[in-house]
């Protein structure tokens, strides 16, 4: 199967998952990540960062992001800065969408109850900037979905951007993200 055909299929899968309001980092790529359990050593995260920076294959870059997201507790600001650069500049919508989903995953795993994780503001600011410059609605959908996983107070800015998006599906996903976030935070407060 040609590379362009693979990219097209992956993009359609990503759009489908975004439309359903669920993004599974392993399913969206049909990667053999089910076997990737446990903790990957820091050296492997560094290798994934290198792969994200240097690979010419969108699938390989997306796999690198999945590897990083699955080890969210080990993610450093340096790793995130590489991901932010790719969120802004990667030519492939699949990779940008996976990065947005990964930021949601990382934020959720680094939180301590109601307290935002140590890197949450960095990721949130990157997603706010990316949302305002992103032309591809699939990536904006992923950003809207991922926003529900953040605890930081500025998350409402991102959710409100999604709610006021010109595309009706993104508006709906923004409303769904707001509801999901509100319910999650209320449950944390009330127990």
Topology (elements, then pairings):
Blueprint: H1 3-20, H2 42-54, H3 58-69, H4 77-89, H5 93-110, H6 120-133, H7 137-146, H8 155-163, H9 168-190
Helix pairs in contact: 1-7, 2-3, 2-4, 3-5, 4-5, 4-6, 5-6, 5-7, 6-8, 7-8, 7-9, 8-9
* CATH hierarchy, class: Mainly Alpha
List the uncertain runs: 14-40
* Major β-sheet profile: none
Provide the gyration radius in Å.
16 Å
What portion of the residues fall into strands of 2 or more residues?
under 5%
| Mean pLDDT score | 84
User: Helical proportion?
Assistant: 55-70%
Ends distance:
50 Å
Query: Number of helical runs?
Result: 9
Principal-axes geometry comes out as globular
| Total number of strands | 0
- Structural class of the helix and strand makeup? mainly alpha
Whole-number total of structural domains: 1
- Identify the CATH architecture: Alpha Horseshoe
The CATH topology label is: Leucine-rich Repeat Variant
What is the N-to-C succession of helices and strands?
HHHHHHHHH
How would you characterize this protein structure?
The chain has one domain: Alpha Horseshoe (Leucine-rich Repeat Variant). It is 68% helix and 0% strand. It is built from nine helices and no strands. It has helices spanning 3-20, 42-54, 58-69, 77-89, 93-110, 120-133, 137-146, 155-163, 168-190. α1 (3-20) packs across α7 and α4 (77-89) runs parallel beside α6 (120-133).
């Amino acid at each position: 199967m040609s590379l362009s055909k693979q990219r097209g299929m992956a993009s359609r899968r990503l759009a489908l998952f975004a439309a359903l309001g669920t993004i599974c980092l392993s399913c969206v790529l049909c990667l053999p990540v089910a076997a990737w359990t446990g903790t990957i050593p820091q050296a492997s995260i560094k290798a994934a960062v290198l792969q994200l920076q240097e690979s010419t294959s969108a699938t390989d870059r997306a796999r690198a992001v999945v590897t990083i997201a699955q080890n969210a507790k080990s993610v450093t600001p340096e790793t995130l800065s590489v991901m932010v650069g790719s969120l802004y500049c990667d030519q492939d919508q699949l990779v940008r969408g996976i990065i947005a989903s990964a930021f949601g995953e990382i934020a959720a795993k680094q939180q301590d109850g109601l307290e935002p994780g140590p890197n949450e503001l960095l990721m949130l600011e990157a997603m706010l900037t990316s949302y305002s410059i992103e032309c591809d609605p699939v990536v904006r959908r992923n950003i809207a979905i991922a926003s529900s996983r953040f605890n930081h107070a500025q998350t409402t800015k991102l959710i409100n951007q999604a709610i006021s998006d010109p595309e009706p599906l993104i508006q709906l996903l923004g409303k769904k993200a707001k509801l999901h976030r509100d319910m999650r935070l209320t449950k944390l407060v009330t127990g």
